[in-house]
Design a protein that fits this description.
With 142 residues, this protein is of the alpha+beta class. Helices cover 41% and strands 27% of the residues. The chain has a four-stranded antiparallel β-sheet with strand order 2-3-1-4, with helices on one face. The protein binds nickel (II) ion (NI). Nickel (II) ion binds next to strand 2.
Length: 142
């Protein structure tokens, strides 16, 4: 990845926040404050892009469910086929006799990804699910 030109500017913040930032830099092993602040801003921008809804994002949808539950597996598969263009890959793990863990890798507009996750997580019989959002990588150079 090419190195992007750095932009230097000064930030003012309450001293207590600055002290906690320094502690974070130390604990997390950042090279310096700038690296830590850039990381925090990137993280917030990923969330912001998701909120905008029309920006392309990447992510994973994780589901745990009992495959013996009537119609559940077929319902989950139907939802996934309806959105095949944004589901890049899926992994299915048989956790035990009853429980399945599914991880879907998704890439598409934030609003669409959120809608798919909501549909899957709302399916009756899904025990737990979570959407994890990240960036496609195109919005950031390091
Ligand atoms: Ni299974």
């Amino acid at each position: 990845m090419k190195n992007e030109r750095l932009c230097r500017f000064s930030i003012s913040m309450p001293a207590t926040i600055a002290r906690q930032l320094d502690a974070l830099v130390h604990t997390k092993g950042y090279a310096n404050r700038s690296q830590a602040v850039a990381e925090l801003v990137r993280s917030r921008l990923v969330e912001h892009h998701q909120e905008l809804g029309d920006r392309e994002i990447a992510g994973t949808i994780t589901l745990v469910y009992d495959h013996h539950k009537p119609h559940l597996q077929a319902a989950l598969t139907d939802i996934q086929h309806d959105h095949h263009s944004v589901i890049v890959s899926t992994m299915h793990v048989h956790l035990d006799h009853h429980n399945c863990l599914e991880v879907l890798v998704v890439r598409g507009k934030g609003a669409v990804i959120r809608q798919i996750a909501d549909e899957l997580l709302a399916a009756k019989g899904v025990k737990h699910g979570r959407l994890t959002i990240t960036t496609t990588g195109r919005d950031f150079e390091t």
